[in-house]
Structures are given as structure tokens and as C-alpha cells.
Amino acid sequence: MEKKTKEQRELILQESKLEVRKVEGEPTKIIGYAVRWDQLSHPIYGMFQERFKRGAFTASLINPDVYAAWQHDAREILGRTPGTLLVAEDDIGLRYEITPPSWAEKYVETIERGDVRGSSFIFRPTKEEWDETNTDMPIRTVVEAELYEVSPVTSPAYPQSTVGVRSAEEIFQARPTIDSMKDDEADKRAIAKDLEMRLRKLNL
């Protein structure tokens, strides 16, 4: 199976807003949700919508090596598993908890003020399903995925880059359509028929 490329998604919902937790005698925590189970995304470049099945990251979180970066900047690492970043699945979705370094206090303040409200994550899907019956546009369900990064971000939109659009186009074009599934079935029947004829010849 061809290994899929990494993809980036962002989430900014009122009920998923980032939270800063400060408890006396304990380090400051940045808490948020990168994914909410079975919740449809906004249309991705007008091509398809997407949702994540509950437990999509279970296998990836057995021995995770995931980091948290400010605005996806690898020079601004806020935490990393297993010490300063906790990533876990719960009934709501994929939850993360960052223990940021002291120099990141300026970033913590922007979250407290509500200036930075979004969460973004980078993942690679390993198992997915497509629903072509939706009247608006196809729906992609990510059943299993590998997680690489979670990050607090300002922008709520999918990255509007040429690379991002090209990646979405490749995902959309690679999906199994009804016609391709019919072709696969026809190929399977042809192979089975050919095998049956060969076996008959051997029995003569």
C-alpha cells in the first residue's frame, strides 16, 4: 500500500476553544482539542468534507512521539510527549495538554485574552472511508491515523497554499469511486472465470 503524505487540519469551534489552566503550585497548562469525533469539517477547498471516527488515533498513541509547536513553527516547541505534552482520546475527541516553557508566557497571554483560539494538527491517514451518497459533496471518514503534531494557531482556515490545495486534490482524486469499485469487481470476476477455465483444463 502506498504511504500517504502528512496532512494538516485546523479546528476553531466555540466549544473547542483553547483553555489556559493555572493552579497555585502547579505549572501552567494549555488545553485544547485537536479533533472532535464524527464532526463534519467545513468543505476542504470545495472538494470534500471530512470527519474522524472515534478512536482514530488509538494505535498511534501507544508509544507516541508527538510535539506541540506555536503556530506550527518548529523553532517554537511548546512541549513533547511523554514529558511536557499529553495527548489522549476521550468521549469528545483528541485532547491535548501542553506544559509550556517559561519563555512562552507571552503566548499563554494571547490565549488567555482570546486572541489565539484555534487548534491545528498534522496527521497521516492509514485507513479511510468515502461516502459518495451525500448530495452536497463526498464525505471522507478517517478511521485510523498517525499523529505527529498539535499546535495552537490563530487562523481558523485550512492552509491556503498551493501545496495544501494540491494535497487536497490528490486525496480527492485517489478516493475509490463507484465506477472504480465496479471496475475492481469486474476484474475480480474476470480473474475468477479465467482461473475456473484453467482448473477445468487441468481436470481433462
Quickly count the helices. 3
Radius of gyration using CA atoms only: 22 Å
Task: Return the structural class.
Answer: alpha+beta
What is the succession of H and E elements? EEEEEEEEHEEHH
Helix content: 10-25%
The number of E-state strands comes to 10
- Kindly report the average pLDDT value: 82
Tell the overall outline: elongated
- Termini separation (Å)? 39 Å
State which percent range the strand residues make up: 25-35%
Tell me the major beta sheet.
6 strands, mixed
Description:
The chain is α+β, with helices and mostly antiparallel strands. The protein is built from three helices and ten strands; from the N terminus they run ββββββββαββαα. It has helices spanning 105-112, 162-174, 178-203; strands at 7-11, 19-21, 29-36, 49-52, 67-69, 77-80, 85-89, 93-98, 118-131, 139-153. Strands 1, 4, 5, 6, 9 and 10 form a six-stranded mixed beta sheet that branches. The protein starts with 6 loop residues before the first strand and ends with a helix. Mean pLDDT is 82; it is low at 157-164.
